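Quick entry between incubations.
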Amino acid sequence: MAEPSIFTRILQGDIPGEIVAETERVFAIKDISPQAPLHLLVIPKTQEYRDVAALAAGDPSLLAEMITLANDLAAEHADGDFRVLFNTGAGAGQTVFHVHAHVLAGGLGEKSLVGG
Ligand code: 5GP
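Done. Structure below.
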């Protein structure tokens, strides 16, 4: 058995963390270091997938569930518009190797990070 990730430990109640939503297979917490007015992490309950590429290959419907929950939470906690980000690999800033979507919303402005 792999060591429980920090997110698994939050899900299990071993360390504090505000769970803002939970479905059968996915949960969401507030990021401890928010980078936007609303900064949530949407996380599969399984820690089997280390990053979004592994998840897309292994269980695309679970990835779709994460995006659906992100959409619902952006509507519930902000104006419905949101940015979703998956850091993938240490070189891209990933520090927790239990796949998670950063969901940023609320007063982002109209300018995109890329393009636009
Ligand atoms: P990564 O760098 O892997 O893409 O994202 C990991 C995220 O987890 C970071 O944004 C970081 O702030 C967040 N994080 C790390 N430890 C904790 C924690 O104990 N509680 C919460 N709520 N977020 C955490």
